[in-house]
Task: structure prediction
Amino acid sequence: PKVTAADGLWFSLAAGLAVRDAIRQITTLNADLRWPNDLLLGHPARKFSGVLTELHAEQTQVRHLVIGIGINVHQTHFPDELSALATSLRIESGQHWPRQLLLVSLLKYLDEETSALANPDTQPQAKQAILRRLEAASTWIRGKQVVVNEHLAEASFTGITAGLDERGFLLVDTAGGFRTVHSGGVREAPTK
Result:
């Protein structure tokens, strides 16, 4: 897409929404989105899907952007070290889901999301819609006690999620004030 490198996060967020919509359409399961790129199901919530977006950019615009999406569809169990963290559509629903149906639905929603972001005429509205839909689709965006491990920082920090800023980055209210999470892992803080 003809967008700036700063807009790369929007494509990850849009892809997460596309996965969520496709899964709901095919299976009726409602996934929870953990900023910026994980989708969770079940109680307790476990990861069944992840999105990774990488881009190559010139000074002013993206040359190419690749969105990788992994979805655990048919797994019936996971190794002991992952069983508390990972799940699949089959585990959560007890049903076998044709991957072709999931793929067709995912590509449809992904095309809708990315086309709106890539079009300069619809991009501002698409970004606002993504912010609104993420707030509605995620228990992780607002009011969740979390631990954040930033990729470039040496230490982690804790706080309560406080929404997304206008660029799509997560805001966390910490003991030292509000912090903006630009990258890294966001996990639920252990309860005392």
